[in-house]
Amino acid sequence: MSKNKPAETATNKPAHEIRINGIRATIWKNETEKGPRFNTTFERSYKDGEAWKTSDSYGREDLLLLAYMAREAFAWIAKQPTK
User: Fold this and answer.
1) 61 is a domain residue
2) What is the pLDDT of residues 17-56, one digit of tens each?
3) CA dist 76 to 26, 53, 59, 70, 72, Å?
4) How far is it, in rounded angstroms, from Cα 83 to Cα 44?
5) Confidence (pTM)
6) 72 in the Ramachandran plot: left (φ > 0), alpha (ψ -120 to 50) or beta?
7) Is 25 exposed, middle or buried (0-12, 13-18, 19+ CB in 10 A)?
8) Are 44 and 55 contacting, i.e. CB atoms less than 8 angstroms apart?
9) From CA 10, how far away is CA 4, in angstroms rounded?
10) CB of 22 within 8 A of CB of 66?
11) Does 32 fall in a domain?
């Protein structure tokens, strides 16, 4: 699992999230001198016994959905105003 995920705090909320079938794309907005920049993280939720866990590893059956979600994240970012 990646340890470089942005911290989800009250001051660093996601700009947008897309969730489909246990996979989540989280879009983060970062303000820069040249205007806003966006980064996207992806995570898969799964149940291990009674506990829910997350992973950034994807199986063959997840890849087309992951690609679709990446396209949707790109489309959302492209619609955002620039400086």
Assistant:
1) yes
2) 999 999 999 999 999 999 999 999 999 999 999 999 999 9
3) 11, 27, 25, 10, 6
4) 33
5) 0.82
6) alpha
7) buried
8) yes
9) 18
10) no
11) yes
How many domains are contained in the chain? 1
Considering the domain boundaries, does residue 51 fall inside one?
A: yes
**Spatial separation of the C-alpha atoms in residues 62 and 55, rounded to whole Å:** 12
* Euclidean distance between CA atoms 15 and 51, whole angstroms: 28
Distance (Å) of CA 68 to CA 9, 71, 74: 28, 5, 10
Q: Does the pLDDT at position 76 exceed 50?
A: yes
Where would I find the H helices in 1-83? Answer: 60-78
Residue span of the structural domain in which 21 resides: 16-78
- Phi then psi for residue 60, to 5 deg, are -55, -40
Query: Is position 11 within any domain?
Result: no
